[in-house]
Amino acid sequence: MLETLRKLNPQLPFYSVYDDAFKRFGRVIPFDATSLIETCEKAAVMPQSGSAYVPDMPELEALPAFQQVKDELRGEGSCQIGCCWGYNQMLNCLEYHRASEHNIAVSDIVLLLAAQQDMEGNDLPEGKIVGFYCPKGTTIEVYATSLHFCPCQTADEGFRCIVILPRGTNHALTKKPDEKVADGRLLWAVDKWLIAHPDNKPVVERGAYPGLHGENFKIRY
């Protein structure tokens, strides 16, 4: 699959999350996610089109594995287990948090990542995006300094990805962001700073900052 992705997407540097290139953005973690994956496959019913995201999915958080996730992946810290799933091939946006995010690939997925250190103010210059293939069953930590967004599918059947973050992340803000503070213009949800590609007009029209420069990549598989 990786060689196919490289061949069909020559405009992007493409790696596996098992390659050294991923070390700048995150790491692979040995973790038995069998029960989480099996439950997510049943609970995350595919939409007719587009993608969906639930910050905390009751079916996943009710599993005995929730305590294992909290203890082993989050160091007994605040924890929520959600899911992102559906159909997506586009870059469209990038976001970052103040804490690492853990992802469990319920299907094969592609992550489009960039480093926060490469931002210039609120903008990400052209040429900073890297593609990573993450095979089904893999658990990864995506560092807080890694810009990321909705996974891309590698098959017509779409994608599913479990998303683990501190409790409350990605929920609605309770007050209007202060654009005078550092990256306040980008604050989009609780512990979520977002930049959009100018071509992603629906999100830009909702107020997202169009700071993602270069091509709005479409992943071909």
Question: How is this structure best summarized?
Answer:
The chain has helices at 2-8, 34-43, 58-61, 65-73, 201-205, and strands at residues 14-16, 26-28, 51-54, 80-86, 93-96, 101-105, 109-115, 130-134, 139-142, 146-147, 152-153, 159-165, 187-189, 192-196. It is α+β, with helices and mostly antiparallel strands and 221 residues long. The chain is globular and about 45 Å long.
Task: Itemize the secondary structure elements and their pairings.
Elements: H1 2-8, E1 14-16, E2 26-28, H2 34-43, E3 51-54, H3 58-61, H4 65-73, E4 80-86, E5 93-96, E6 101-105, E7 109-115, E8 130-134, E9 139-142, E10 146-147, E11 152-153, E12 159-165, E13 187-189, E14 192-196, H5 201-205
Parallel strand pairs: 1-8
Antiparallel strand pairs: 2-9, 3-4, 4-12, 5-14, 6-9, 6-12, 7-8, 7-10, 7-11, 13-14
Primary descriptors:
Jelly Rolls, five-stranded mixed beta sheet, alpha+beta, 221 residues
Architecture overview:
- It is a single chain.
- By secondary structure, the chain is of the alpha+beta class.
- It has five helices and 14 strands.
- The strands form three sheets. Strands 2-9-6-12-4-3 form a six-stranded antiparallel β-sheet. Strands 1, 7, 8, 10 and 11 form a five-stranded mixed β-sheet that branches. Strands 5-14-13 form a three-stranded antiparallel β-sheet, with no helix packed on it.
- The protein starts with a helix and ends in a 16-residue tail after the last helix.
- The chain has a single domain, classed as Sandwich (Jelly Rolls).
